[in-house]
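Please, structure for the following, as C-alpha cells.
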Amino acid sequence: MVTTIRRAPTRWRGLFAGLAIAGLTASALYVGTSTAAAAPDLLSQGATAAASSSENGGTLAPAAVDGNGGTRWSSAAQDGQWLRVDLGSTSTISQITLNWENAYASSYRIQTSANGADGWTTIKTVTGGTGGNETLAVSGSGRYVRIEGITRATQWGISLWEFQVFGTRAGGPTTTPPPNGPIVRVAEFLASCPFSHRLPDDPIVAPRLPGASHMHAFFGNTSTNANSDINSLLAANSNCSPALDLSSYWIPDFYNNNQVVVPDPPTFYYLGEGVRDDVIARIQPLPLGLRIVAGNSKATAPDETTISRWSCLHAGQVNPSKNFVECPAGTELESYLDFPQCWNGRDLDSADHKSHMAYPVNGDCPSTHPVPVPKLRQVVRYPISGNPAGFRLSSGAGFTMHGDFFNAWPEAEMLRRVRDCINPIIKCGVDGRP
C-alpha cells in the first residue's frame, strides 16, 4: 500500500545538525535515544544514520531522523544514492514513512540488513513515486534499514525531511525518551537573525567613525552603528530568534549588477565541532563584549586567509569555491564562514581584531589561546542564481567575504546554552533546549 499526500513546495530552512562546510565526508553519524509510541513503535528517531553522500554540510544524514521537519538530508545529484539507519538491534519492520523534499525519487527500494554492510534484502520496491508524504506497508526484519534511490525525479539528488521506520524491537519496547524528545548528539545551539539595516559603519574595525567603512548589512541588534559598544547593544532590541540574543552580526553588502541583494534570514550556529570530545567538555562561554572578525576583507586573491566558501543550495554538483560560483536556476547562492573558537583568555579584542582568537590545531586549542569557546558558523543564502559575472561584495570579490561579531548574549543565557547544549554534546534549538 502506498498513500501519497502532495505538499506545497517548501524552501529549506535551518541546518543541520553538526554541520560542516565544504570538504566534509559523504556520510555522517547521528546518535540518540529512541522514541516510544503506540504499536508499531517509531524505531528510527534518535538512531544512528549514514548516507552514500550529502549535498553539502547543511544536509547531512542525521537531519532525516532528528524528528525536525525543518531539517533534511539531501544527496549528491546522482542516481543510486542511499540513506541508512541503524536501529540498534534486530527489529521487525512493518511501516516506512517518507517525507520528501521537492527533490524526490521516482523509483526506489527499501532494504534491510543484519550488519549494514552486505546481505541486503529488499522488502519494498516503489516505481512511479510522486514525492510528498508516502506511507509504505512493509514486512521484514533487520537491524539496519536503507532507502536506496533508483531513479531521481528531478535534476537534483534525493532529499528527505524525515525517514521514519516503524515496527517492533526484538528486545522489547523502545526506551522512554527525554521530556523534549530524542537527544541529538551534536554540540549546537543557534540564532536566526534577519536583515536589519545597512550602514557604511564598522564598530569593531572603525569604532566611532561613521561612514568610514564599506557598506555592511547588519543582523540581530537593531541599533548597531559606528558608535556601538557593549552598553548600547545591551540597551537596544534584537530581531533575532531568540530575541534575547542582543549580539550584532554584520557582513559586506552583496550586489548583482550594482543592485543590492538582501539575503534570506541567516542562521548563526554556535557549535562544539572542530575539537575533540574532551575539549568540547571544557568549552567556556563566549565572554560578554567579545569582538571577532573572520575572513579577509582586503584579500587580493584566494589564499589561506580567505576562509569563507561559496556553494549552491540544492545543487551539490557545483563544487564549493572561495569565489562566487554559478548556481543553476531554481537554486540559491550560499556562503559559509567559520569563526575561530580558541580564545587567549584575556582580551575582548586586539589590534587586528583577530590575534586574540585562534583556530584549533589537531583537535585542541593551541597553548597561546588555551580557552575553547563555541565556534560561530555564519550561513548566509542569497535568492539569486546564474552567471556570477555581475556579482560583487562591498569589500570586493567573493573571496573577500568576511563576518564581524560583537557578543551581547546575556551572560546567564550563554552559560546555560554552553552547559546544557555544547558541553554534553546535545543539539538545541533557538530556545537553547534539546
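Residues 206 and 212 are 7 Å apart (CA to CA). DSSP finds three helices and 25 strands in the chain.
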